[in-house]
Amino acid sequence: MEEKIEKNEEIKQIRDKIFNKPDLVINRVPKNTLLRFKELASNDEFSQDYGFALKFLMDFYLGIIPSGIEHLETQIDSLQQQMNELKNTEDTSKDIKLANGRIITNR
Questions:
Q1: 16-42: string of b/e by CB count within 10 Å (b at 16+)?
Q2: Cα distance between the two ends of the chain
Q3: pLDDT tens profile 12-67
């Protein structure tokens, strides 16, 4: 009798582990977004593990978005400034006159 109670308790614990696991249900996901997420999760890296794919996206979001895009804007402005400086620099190269009278232009 005691074995039966222990066995029933063990079965109940196993059943609770299986059926009472934490689930995540997300509703109202746009179809295109859901398809892209499933495509990402089916990647070899995730092997259709939606939880791990979601963790990857959250890590990416928390790593990039909270810091803002100010640093990217600063870099873009710096590159734009460098490009403008390169465009505006005068060509300081001089023509070379050879002994035979031919002129080579450095441009």
A1: eeeeeeeeeeeeeeeeeeeeebeeebe
A2: 100
A3: 888 877 777 667 778 899 999 999 999 999 988 888 889 899 999 998 887 766 66
Q: What is the 3-state secondary structure (H, E, C) of the chain?
A: CHHHHHHHHHHHHHHHHHHCCCCCCCCCCCHHHHHHHHHHHCCCCCCCCHHHHHHHHHHHHHHHCCCCCHHHHHHHHHHHHHHHHHHHCCCCCCCEECCCCCEECCC
CA distance linking residue 40 with residue 101, whole number of Å = 67
The tokens for 61 are 């979001």
Any idea which residue has 């995540």 for tokens? 24
Residue 38: what pLDDT?
Answer: 92
